[in-house]
Amino acid sequence: MVDSTILLRVRQIIVESYDIKTFVFEQLDGGKLKYEAGQFLTFLINMHGHEIRRSYSMSSAPETDEFPSITVKRISNGEISRFWIDFVHEGDIFTVLMPSGRFILEQSDGLPRDIILIGAGSGITPLFSILKHTLSTDTTSQVTLLYANRNEKSTLFLEKIEAWKTRYPERLHVIHIHSNPSDHWNGVRGRINNTRLEQMIRAAMFYQPERARFFICGPFELMRSVEITLHYLGFGKDQIRRENFIVGNPPAAPKESKAYEIRLIFKNQEFKLLIPADKTILQAALDSGIHLPYSCKGGVCASCAGVCKSGSVHMTVNDVLTDNDLKQGWILTCTGYPQTSDVLVEIK
């Protein structure tokens, strides 16, 4: 059983700066890619005879962009980013997993709410997708973007963001924070710290705090600091989504884990699968020739997510599922270990 993959052709390459490019894709079969703003694509890239999986958030939004796109920044000593920037051309074809990720905004119930996007550097990529989606579809909500960079020159999508401000002057509020600004910069100088963030969040709120939704993407320390500040201000876990670009080493199995046979539903087929004590559900499935979708294997991206219909599954790491997701039974198979003999997991 093979992965659920699609073939995408590079339709256009947009040079954003000397070290950043946007790649616009079209499906090889002529179909239209179905995805949600904030999701990502996982590319299966052959490098030196080995398959490497890399996930990239989409900078496009399905309601505003005819074709899906990703935006890639060259990383120092990064072989894969160098491949994208230096060697990928229009017309190249890639094998890609179906869009996934839970860095998405739930559908509006029609009542106004604040959507607050907080990012730094290339972390703007999925935030820009959500910004475009929200302004185009959720007509009652206010959108605030807090965007940190070194200076204007290093600010990705600067002109495009300004164009959206012009288009929605009453509903989009953008605050740029520059750590190393030019002499003529009249905006906020410095970095996003807890005190400054607290002031900005309070000033950004138009509606009831419990209806606000926050999306964070950037360096780990920034996201951790922002999340701590938001909890201090009284916002709940289900109001906050964060997207990780950095994945740590795969976590170890729980000390008291043991082998269980589970039932697994994938592509409308049910399998009986023995999960050894030292392996995750994902790894046991892959070892058995069941090619479940995955990317990070570290509990941060949700490519491997499934729903636990019965029994109990313990996750050693979960940096992406909210409390509400967990109540609905969602688990990460890449860090999930069965804890009972009656586990049934469905990969949707």
UniProtKB/TrEMBL annotation:
SUPFAM superfamilies in the cross-refs: 2Fe-2S ferredoxin-like, Ferredoxin reductase-like, C-terminal NADP-linked domain, Riboflavin synthase domain-like
Entry keywords, A to Z: 2Fe-2S, FAD, Flavoprotein, Iron, Iron-sulfur, Metal-binding, Oxidoreductase
Domain 2Fe-2S ferredoxin-type: 260-348
Highest taxon above the source species: Bacteria
Residue ranges occupied by any FAD-binding FR-type domain in the UniProt entry: 3-106
Known cofactor(s): FAD
Presence of keyword Iron: yes
A GO MF term: 2 iron, 2 sulfur cluster binding
PANTHER family per record: 1,2-PHENYLACETYL-COA EPOXIDASE, SUBUNIT E, NADH OXIDOREDUCTASE HCR
Name of the protein: 2Fe-2S iron-sulfur cluster binding domain-containing protein
Organism: Dyadobacter frigoris
